[in-house]
Amino acid sequence: MDKKLVQEINHLHAEICGGLSDPKRITILYALAEGPKNVMEIGDVLELPQPTVSRHLKILRERGMVVPERRGANIIYALSDKRIIRALDLLREVLADHLSQRSALAEAIA
Amino acid sequence: MDKKLVQEINHLHAEICGGLSDPKRITILYALAEGPKNVMEIGDVLELPQPTVSRHLKILRERGMVVPERRGANIIYALSDKRIIRALDLLREVLADHLSQRSALAEAIA
DNA sequence: TCTTTATATACGGAAATATGAATATATCCA
DNA sequence: TGGATATATTCATATTTCCGTATATAAAGA
């Protein structure tokens, strides 16, 4: 494939991964995996001020990870694709393995 | 679960995701999926100066995504877990769907 | 229309991250 | 030991990301 094109794709790929690289956004995504929620409801879950929530939602929206739907005065956000959660779960498994490996090492030393 | 603990976990989860949020690191991970490589070989693939490669490898290493093994003067890096590639592939699929949706929209407008 | 409610954006500063260039460390071999 | 090769780290700087506050937009209801 054309080198420029590959770079462009990898850039977008990195960008979507960047959507996951914040604890609050991860919490938002898992919350939406339970079902669609409006901005206030998400704010309640995260215990965060509304503008902060909106900004994180914008980041996720731009990357196509959540989808907004206006319902009256509210905007209801939904997870766009279950595969996002599957990817998150896989990475969490990798994290768990890494941590238990390290703690096993720590015990072996002690 | 304890709230502090959940936050700590989400922080680590975000950190491992952050390991994926750079085009060069994605290229490195896919390159290592083909098989272990030393730093020079990775540098050849990326066409990047060696210190830059080492710094990216450090980030991936700290997050437990790649594993170094010294062999003589070389250090050979290997992917620590195939699930990392599966997660990357899932997210690339989500990206592809998002892009084709948008291009379908673009055509519908034109 | 005016007010209230829900959501989004703009701005300024703080903190994290990335990068090139230079330098340090570690290993091998003569 | 000294030189060559492979890898890692440091430093200064540039860029990005994040947050709180303030403000703007959009819809609902009186």
What does this structure look like?
Two copies of one chain form a homodimer. By secondary structure, chain A is α+β, with helices and mostly antiparallel strands. Chain A has one domain: Orthogonal Bundle (Arc Repressor Mutant, subunit A), CATH 1.10.10.10. Helices cover 69% and strands 13% of the residues of chain A. The first copy, chain A, has a three-stranded antiparallel beta sheet. The longest helix of chain A is centred in the last third of the chain and has 28 residues, at 82-109. The A-B interface holds A 7, 10-18, 20-27, 63-65, 80-81, 83-84, 86-88, 90-95, 97-99, 101-102 and B 7, 10-18, 20-23, 25-27, 63-65, 80-81, 83-84, 86-88, 90-95, 97-99, 101-102. The first copy, chain A, binds a DNA duplex (30 and 30 nucleotides) through residues 18, 22, 24, 38-40, 49-58, 70, 72-75.
